[in-house]
Specification:
alpha/beta; single chain; 11 helices; 311 residues; three-stranded antiparallel β-sheet; Beta-carbonic Anhydrase, Chain A; 2 domains; 20% strand; binds zinc ion; five-stranded mixed β-sheet; 12 strands
C-alpha cells in the first residue's frame, strides 16, 4: 500500500477530475481571496477536514495547521500576513477532542530522534536537547489549550481591535463543532465531558432550527423557479406565437404504472408534446442543488426530484 501511495493519490485526483467533468464537483474561483475574512488555526490531526466540517470551498478561508493548534512564532508570520495583507477579521482556534498532543511522551520521543540530528539542529537560539519540552509543547487539557491560545492572541486584538479572536472545539467522533460560548465557562475538558449531553441537547435544538430554515429555503426556491417559469410563459403569450415553437422545457409526465418522471418536451403554441427523439432510458435523475446561505457559510443540499426510472 505505502509503495503505491503516489498512485493512490494520483488516481484520487483523476477521480476528482472526472467528478469535475460530470459536474459533481466544482472549483469556484473567486476574485476575492479569501471569500470570507477568516483564518482558522487548527491541529494537524488527519481526522480534521476543515473545509468538509464547515462545508466550505477552496478559496473560502485561510487555514493554518500544526500539532496542537498552537500560536507559535512560525504561525505568527502567517497570521500577520493574513491580518495586514488579506484583511482577516476573524481568527478561530479550532481545537479538538482526543488530541494526540495530550499523549506525547517527551522522553520516548527524544530517544527516537537520532542524537546526531538533534545536535545538528541545536544552534545558538534553539538548544533542542534542553528545549524539547517547549519545542513540542505538549498540553494536558484540550479545552485549556484552546483558551490559552485565544488569550495569547489577545495582544494582537489589542493592537487591531477589528480582528476578533475566538475558539471552537471539534469532536472528531461525532462531527459536531462547539462555539466558544458553549465551553469557555468550563475549566477543564473533564467538566465539558460531564455536561456534554446538555451541550449536545443545545446543539440539537440549533440543528432543528437549521433544518426548518433549510426546508423553507427549498420551498422558496421551488416557488421561485415555478414563478420564473410562469413569468416566462406569460411573457411569451404576449409575444409572437411562432417563437414558442421548439422551446424545450421539463414537465412531469406519468407512465402507465402511474410513475412520475420528468422529461424534456417541446412547448408548441402552449400545447405540450413529447419530443420524438426523447428516450426515457437515457435520462439520468434530475438533481436540484439549491444553494442555502447562512452567515459566512454556503451549504449545498442535493434534492432528488425523482427516482431513476427502473423499467
Ligand atoms: Zn490534535
Amino acid at each position: 500500500m505505502i509503495d503505491n501511495i503516489e498512485n493512490v493519490l494520483i488516481n484520487g485526483n483523476l477521480r476528482y477530475q472526472w467528478k469535475i467533468s460530470q459536474g459533481l464537483e466544482n472549483i469556484e474561483v473567486n476574485d476575492k481571496i479569501p471569500k470570507y475574512p477568516v483564518l482558522i488555526l487548527t491541529c494537524f490531526d488527519p481526522r480534521i477536514d476543515v473545509h468538509r466540517i464547515f462545508q466550505l470551498n477552496p478559496g473560502d478561508i485561510f487555514v493554518l495547521r500544526n500539532a496542537g493548534n498552537l500560536y507559535t512564532q512560525d504561525t505568527l508570520r502567517s497570521i500577520l500576513l493574513t491580518v495586514y495583507q488579506y484583511k482577516i477579521k476573524y481568527i478561530i482556534i479550532l481545537g479538538h477532542l482526543d488530541c494526540c498532543m495530550t499523549k506525547i511522551k517527551l522522553l520516548e520521543l527524544k530517544r527516537k530522534i537520532p542524537y546526531e540530528f538533534l545536535s545538528y539542529q541545536s544552534g545558538e537560539n534553539l538548544d533542542l536537547f534542553s528545549e524539547i519540552r517547549n519545542f513540542f509543547k505538549p498540553f494536558i487539557d484540550v479545552l485549556r489549550n484552546i483558551k490559552q491560545q485565544v488569550e495569547n492572541l489577545q495582544r494582537l486584538h489589542m493592537h487591531k481591535p477589528e480582528v476578533k479572536i475566538t475558539g471552537m472545539l471539534y469532536d472528531v467522533e461525532t462531527g459536531w463543532v462547539f462555539e466558544y460560548d458553549k465551553f469557555k465557562e468550563f475549566a477543564f475538558i473533564e467538566n465539558f465531558r460531564k455536561y456534554y449531553k446538555t451541550v449536545l441537547r443545545e446543539k440539537k435544538d440549533q440543528f432543528i432550527d437549521f433544518i426548518e430554515t433549510i426546508e423553507n429555503e427549498i420551498i422558496n426556491n421551488d416557488e421561485l423557479e415555478k414563478n420564473m417559469l410562469e413569468k416566462d410563459l406569460d411573457e411569451e403569450k404576449e409575444g409572437d406565437l411562432d417563437q414558442l415553437v421548439d422551446k424545450v422545457e421539463e414537465f412531469p409526465i406519468y407512465t402507465e404504472n402511474n410513475e412520475k418522471f420528468v422529461t424534456p418536451v417541446k412547448i408548441q403554441n402552449q400545447k405540450i408534446e413529447l419530443d420524438e427523439n426523447f428516450n426515457t432510458q437515457m435520462i439520468m435523475p434530475k438533481i436540484q442543488v439549491p444553494k442555502i446561505h447562512f452567515p459566512g457559510v454556503k451549504i449545498h443540499i442535493p434534492k432528488i426530484s425523482r427516482k431513476k426510472d427502473e423499467n
